[in-house]
Amino acid sequence: MTVFKDEGRSDLAPVLGVLLRAAVAAALAEYVDGERPIPRRWLLTPVPSSPAATRVRGRFPLGEVVRASLHSDRAGAEQRTLVEASLLRASRRTVDQSHLTRAQRGANVAGAFALAGAREAHAPEECGVVLVDDVVTSGATLASAHDVLVRGGYDPVLLAAVAATPDAGARGDA
Fold first, then answer.
1. Residue partners of 53: CB distance under 8 A and separation at least 6
2. Where would I find the H helices in the chain?
3. What span, in angstroms and rounded, lies between the C-alpha atoms of 27 and 72?
């Protein structure tokens, strides 16, 4: 992911899109709700990058992967409508988490996201959300972003990622 995100390898977006599409399909396949109908419309919502990271990179890599996932070969496999929707925005600065401990990661992203104001275009009662991250390490970023969406009235909110660090699953973070 570092090569894709920080070294400008946009040509990897289609490959990463296929991986994300598989993760989204798995999340949707596992979702069951006995109380109400399962939404047919799902919003793929990428965790936002910080404005500073977007400026430095000159692009929003996770958004590229989400768009690529919608055009992957598996795109027509589900009986659901999947659309990209940027429901979140960064609400404060965070630091690069690559060298932070699990506790530091949680503190770093606590309160770091807010609804982006797209609520009118995507009413929570009409759809489900698949919250997307690039790499899951501790799960702190997804947890923080998930909380904002749920407080904003979005339900269900499923989670998907392109990749997870080797120890994420062992710690129950994936």
1. none
2. 2-6, 13-30, 51-57, 61-70, 102-109, 140-151
3. 17
Q: Which two tokens stand for residue 149?
A: 């969406």
Q: What are the pLDDT digits (tens) for 72-94?
A: 765 554 557 899 999 999 999 98
Q: Rg of the chain's alpha carbons, rounded to an integer?
A: 15
The answer to whether 124 and 152 are in contact (CB under 8 A) is yes
CA distance 41 to 8: 32
Distances (CA, A) of 169 to 21, 62, 132, 145: 19, 21, 17, 19
Q: What is the pLDDT of residues 108-133, one digit of tens each?
A: 999 999 999 755 555 666 789 999 99
Residue 129 tokens, joined: 């959300």
